[in-house]
Amino acid sequence: MRHFIRFLFLLLPILALPSCKLEDQAEIDQEKIEQYLADNKLSATRHSSGIYYIISTPGSGGSPSLTSTVTVNYKGYYVNNSVFDQTTGSPIQFPLNNLIQGWQIAIPLLQKGGKGTFFIPSQLGYGSYPPQGIPANAVLIFDIELVDFK
Fold first, then answer.
1. pTM for this one?
2. Which of 32, 75, 115, 125 could form a disulfide with 57 if both were Cys (CB 3.0 to 4.6 A apart)?
């Protein structure tokens, strides 16, 4: 029993390590977002999730829920303004509950026809295991227009 207790005390710091790394990354991401906002003279609202956002056009007609299929135009880029993805021509449809957590939080902040810019910390984006082409722990910025939802 004594060895088990000693083992638990040795294990506890190791178990706490991943959450410390997430907290550290969250602080790094927040600093990157706040620096981007300052450098670009932007004023954004901070959501309780850690996302920052600017609603440029509120829209009308209600907001989607997590179970909605959303039709959007968007541009995704990094804090260095390098674009990594965007719609071209026609808007695209997605089931909202299949998207990154950042979008699941951000898009319901818009109403139909609304537009906004969303600054998404890495843990609400692709985190440390992103798809090919996206850097690990990247802060993502999205200009999103919510064209429609059902």
1. 0.85
2. 115
